[in-house]
Design goal:
Elements (H helix, E strand, L loop, with lengths): L6 H11 L5 H8 L21 E2 L13 E13 L2 E16 L4 E2 L2 E2 H13 L9 E15 L2 E13 L23
Parallel strand pairs: 1-2
Antiparallel strand pairs: 2-3, 3-7, 4-5, 6-7
Helix pairs in contact: 2-3
Length: 182
């Protein structure tokens, strides 16, 4: 029987170990002015709870014209063949103000989608899961009158019968070791 102990370390590993370590994702979230290339903050952890959230967050149209990523779990059902395992669905909301969708001859939302997908989809990982996560699909969303985006759905298979590692290996990375696939 699962106790959902795996969810906190899992979302912490995704946000702390993946999203906050990815310089390309940080650029897409932080440089929201057209053709802007301002330097990233020294500590990408500053994007946590300002641009990257571990919960569904609805932006306020009166705030800055920015982009956000929200990662949170929705659903959790047992795998039919083994009652000790559970499938959980990770929702990733990519939310952008309408004025920052288009940038540098590209679409910010789709570039953020591509960056997240390279980090998660069918990637071997040290997250407390069985196998690899996979993309179940995505859908466009209207979050508010000025904010539109995409919701991506990833499936994770977790073993709910074991005690999860409470600190993902990626949390032990030093600030200087930032994921940059380029």
């Amino acid at each position: 029987m699962g106790h959902y102990k795996e969810l906190s370390p899992l979302v912490k590993g995704i946000i702390g170990g993946r999203f906050l370590r990815n310089q390309n994702l940080a650029r897409l979230l932080y440089n929201y002015e057209p053709n802007c290339n301002k330097p990233l903050p020294r500590d990408l952890n500053n994007l946590f709870m300002t641009h990257i959230y571990p919960m569904p967050k609805m932006p306020d149209a009166k705030t800055k014209k920015e982009a956000y990523v929200c990662a949170y779990f929705n659903g959790g059902y047992e795998v039919e063949d083994n009652k000790g395992y559970r499938n959980v669905v990770l929702n990733i909301d990519i939310i952008c103000h309408i004025d920052v969708w288009f940038y540098n001859d590209s679409y910010r939302v789709y570039d953020i989608m591509a960056e997240i997908d390279t980090m998660l989809n069918n990637q071997m990982t040290d997250l407390p899961i069985e196998g690899t996560p996979y993309l179940r699909g995505f859908q466009t969303r209207i979050y508010e009158s000025e904010f539109y985006g995409v919701q991506m759905l990833y499936n994770f298979k977790v073993n709910s019968t074991i005690e999860c590692n409470t600190q993902p290996i990626t949390d032990k990375l030093r600030n200087g070791l930032v994921y940059d696939p380029v």
